[in-house]
Amino acid sequence: MDAKIKNFVSSNHLLALSVLDNQQEIYTASCYYAFCEKYISLVFKSMQDCKHIQFAKCNPKVGVIIAEDSKKLHLIKGLQIKASFRESLENERALYYKRFPYALLGNGEVFTLDILWAKYTDNTLLMEKKLIYQRNL
């Protein structure tokens, strides 16, 4: 993964997760995340019975957006992601709680999104091409 993408995803903390429901309609939720560079994944916490978790368990191929808010075109930065949902490993849970220690006080489970593909846009760099990451399977 390109260092510019890693820096962007590491410096942000909120993602929009899109999953397919039982009728193949899109359902979206916002989640705080920690970036796990070791596995190129996003680690987040949510309740087991939330709709987005239940739907992701049924169809683990999900979409993710991470973006910085700006009304100025030349300042737009964002990442479009295709990911695979799964249960988190112990070291991923530890990473999440290190970034968000107050989350230990709340209920819920920690889950992981393995990044399979990502397209990074950074208009501040005046790039003609977008940076693409593709996981080697």
Model description:
The chain has helices spanning 3-11, 51-58, 90-99; strands at 14-20, 26-36, 41-46, 61-68, 77-87, 109-122, 131-134. The protein is an alpha+beta fold. It is globular and about 45 Å long. Strand 2 and strand 3 (41-46) form a beta hairpin. The chain has one domain: Pnp Oxidase, Chain A (Roll), CATH 2.30.110. It is 20% helix and 45% strand. This is Pyridoxamine 5'-phosphate oxidase putative domain-containing protein.
Q: Portion of residues in helices?
A: 10-25%
Q: What is the structural class?
A: alpha+beta
Number of domains: 1
Number of helical stretches of at least 4 residues? 3
Distance between the termini: 14 Å
Oligomer: single chain
* Uncertain stretches of 5 or more adjacent residues: none
Number of strands: 7
What's the name of the CATH homologous superfamily? Electron Transport, Fmn-binding Protein, Chain A
Q: Which architecture would the CATH scheme give at its second level?
A: Roll
Radius of gyration, in angstroms, nearest whole number: 15 Å
Strand order of the largest sheet: 1-2-3-6-5-4
Q: Can you tell me the CATH class?
A: Mainly Beta
Largest sheet: 6 strands, antiparallel, barrel
Under CATH, the topology is which? Pnp Oxidase, Chain A
Order of helices and strands: HEEEHEEHEE
Shape: globular
Tell me the strand percentage band.
35-45%
Average pLDDT number:
93
